[in-house]
Design a protein that fits this description.
152 residues, alpha/beta, 6 strands
Length: 152
């Protein structure tokens, strides 16, 4: 029994170690961009940005949604289904440079996230497919689900 307990402790330690290594770039990204767009962010939904884009134009915002990072398709979607069915108008384009985009893909692609950046109403991403643009992104946080995975 004691040996089993020791194995569990070692497994927990290794899982925490690998998790911290995976999130190193995300932490570095946040730290290096913290002063990019000063000001307290307004907490808004994608629905608010789509409905009243002019109200939030050039404002620092905090927004949550489903993140997809891909070539010419960096966007925050209202939900997974909008991403899956390519409903681009229910998404906001994310203006990330190629280096940040590819490094962040490993850590937070296709997860629900919270993003802080500056919203631009007149820009709509690649081929004007999206409903606005977020630039000067200074923070991306992965959201945790309220539903815990069942352990059988």
């Amino acid at each position: 029994m004691k040996l089993f307990f020791n194995y569990i402790l070692i497994a927990l330690f290794l899982s925490n170690f690998s998790y911290s290594q995976e999130n190193d770039y995300l932490s570095d990204f946040i730290e290096s961009n913290i002063d990019k767009s000063p000001g307290k962010p307004l907490s808004v939904s994608i629905i608010q940005l789509i409905t009243f884009p002019e109200k939030y134009d050039n404002k620092v915002i905090m927004i949550k949604g489903f993140l997809n990072l891909s070539f010419e398709g960096n966007a925050l979607y209202l939900n997974y289904q909008d991403f899956e069915y390519k409903i681009f108008k229910n998404a906001i384009y994310l203006n990330l440079d190629k280096a940040n985009s590819s490094k962040l893909t490993v850590e937070c692609n296709q997860k629900y996230v919270s993003i802080i950046g500056t919203f631009k109403a007149g820009l709509n991403g690649h081929f004007s497919s999206f409903s606005g643009d977020i630039f000067d992104i200074r923070r991306i946080d992965i959201l945790e689900s309220r539903i815990k995975e069942s352990k059988n």
